[in-house]
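Here is the promised in-class demo. Please do not try to memorize the tokens; focus on the logic of going from shape to residues.
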């Protein structure tokens, strides 16, 4: 076969295996020591969820490559062994929705249940919550699908007259049509009254994906807009705020003493809260104090880490300081490179999505030219930009998650991440990954044209009744750009300030 369709199938299988192994590696190294050799079901859900989220991001470049696999075929049926991308998209996002709204909540309810209760009662309690959620979601989806689950396509009826077949072809900008004396084609002169609306009902799986995309798009516009700026700027300003020199021993002892006092107060408060939990006094005040303790504990860990950087100890103290300096230099380099990518993303959104008609295809043309240099080079660059956008969403969630009162703090730390934190972040990534794909399919519509993703996210989704206006008026893109600008202003005003160990404990009572 002259096409590379068989090779694409093999590559897809290999990538799936690599992604699965990589996620198992992340789980093993990020998990908390208390979760070792237990909580196997939440761990299984974490690995599956991470795999689905990463594969969904990589599926869009695979969709583009799958389209190119048959570019030499006279008709689509002449090209065999290509990937059934539309079926794969629907399957992946149905699994995504089931994980986000049912499986992950069940795993979190089960994991966070009282450890002293029997396993059967913990499963029963988790199932009650999940079944209640399933009934509510099913009713909402069924009603919405039955009432407004339709697609409205605007079409224009075009027609023109006939003329004798010419003996020679003579076309130019002033003579675009066949026939003498014709300056504009008859179809071009069609009146606005020729526009009609075709209405058809979408499939239920596509409608589920559409609604999940709306929920994810709200989070994406917030976290992605903040993250596209804070991801590179956070690295750059981390270099600016870096410790310039090692502190003296007396300074270290003073700060360490203050942190030790804070740690004792935190332990005392945590023990008191645990005693209240055992007595059944889990009211609003108790939950507020738990959040306060969690927040102070995170601050304490940051203070300890910063103090260790400023005063390395042990036989290899000089080596540790050298590695710290190199680490901050690496942050600077990655921050500069990330800034270039972020600026390219924002410029592309403005000139290709927000301006009508687009000023330029911009990155679409870049990917096409890279494909001309080497077959899959443009696809690789395309995959990088899509994956970078997902990283921006994660960075934005980590930044805002510590500051917004309605978001539970679930930090991800190397070797110290509990399974409930893992599950929360996986659900967030899964929910946002749908919107990242939809956003990329729209932003790179010229490069990703004629793909299964564009059929689902570029036509059906943007024509759904009641939803299409959010995309028609670029609501999410505008919010994305505004939040990116506000985040840039925030870093310009406050980003340069150096963090210092707080040495204080303030528990809300």
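The designed amino acids, position by position:
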């Amino acid at each position: 076969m002259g096409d590379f369709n068989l090779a694409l199938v093999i590559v897809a299988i290999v990538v799936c295996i690599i992604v699965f192994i990589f996620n198992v590696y992340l789980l093993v190294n990020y998990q908390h020591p208390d979760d070792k050799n237990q909580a196997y079901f939440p761990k299984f859900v974490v690995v599956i969820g991470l795999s689905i989220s990463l594969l969904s991001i990589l599926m869009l470049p695979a969709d583009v490559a799958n389209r190119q696999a048959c570019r030499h075929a006279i008709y689509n049926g002449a090209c065999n062994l290509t990937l059934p991308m539309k079926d794969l998209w629907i399957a992946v996002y149905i699994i995504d929705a089931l994980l986000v709204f049912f499986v992950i909540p069940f795993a979190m309810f089960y994991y966070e249940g009282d450890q002293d209760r029997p396993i059967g009662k913990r499963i029963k309690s988790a199932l009650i919550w999940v079944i209640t959620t399933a009934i509510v979601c099913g009713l909402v989806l069924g009603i919405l699908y039955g009432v407004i689950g339709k697609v409205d396509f605007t079409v224009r009826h075009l027609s023109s007259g006939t003329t004798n077949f010419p003996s020679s072809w003579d076309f130019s900008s002033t003579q675009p049509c066949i026939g003498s004396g014709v300056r504009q084609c008859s179809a071009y002169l069609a009146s606005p009254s020729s526009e009609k609306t075709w209405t058809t009902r979408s499939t239920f799986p596509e409608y589920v994906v559409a609604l999940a995309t709306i929920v994810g798009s709200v989070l994406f516009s917030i976290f992605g807009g903040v993250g596209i700026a804070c991801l590179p700027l956070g690295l750059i300003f981390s270099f600016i705020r870096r410790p310039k020199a090692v502190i003296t021993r007396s300074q270290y002892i003073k700060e360490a003493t203050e942190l030790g006092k804070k740690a004792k107060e935190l332990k005392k408060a945590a023990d008191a809260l645990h005693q209240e939990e055992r007595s059944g006094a889990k009211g609003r005040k108790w939950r507020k104090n738990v959040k306060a303790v969690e927040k102070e504990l995170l601050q304490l860990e940051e203070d300890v880490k910063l103090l260790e950087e400023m005063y390395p100890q042990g036989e290899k103290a000089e080596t540790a300081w050298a590695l710290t300096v190199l680490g901050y230099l690496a942050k600077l380099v990655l921050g500069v490179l990330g800034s270039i990518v972020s600026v390219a993303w924002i410029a592309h959104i403005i000139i290709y999505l927000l301006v009508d008609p687009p000023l330029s295809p911009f990155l679409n043309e870049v990917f096409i030219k890279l494909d001309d240099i080497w077959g899959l080079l443009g696809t690789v660059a395309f995959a990088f930009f899509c994956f970078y956008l997902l990283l921006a969403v994660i960075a934005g969630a980590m930044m805002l998650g510590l500051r917004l009162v309605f978001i539970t703090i679930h930090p991800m730390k190397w070797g110290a991440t509990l399974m409930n934190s893992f599950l929360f972040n996986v659900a967030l990534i899964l929910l946002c990954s749908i919107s990242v794909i939809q956003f990329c399919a729209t932003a790179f519509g010229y490069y990703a044209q004629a793909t299964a993703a564009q059929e689902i996210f570029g036509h059906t989704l943007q024509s759904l009744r009641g939803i299409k206006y959010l995309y028609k008026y670029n609501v999410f893109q505008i919010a994305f750009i505004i939040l990116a600008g506000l985040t840039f202003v925030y870093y310009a005003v406050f980003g340069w300030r150096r963090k210092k160990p707080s040495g204080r404990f303030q528990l809300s009572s």
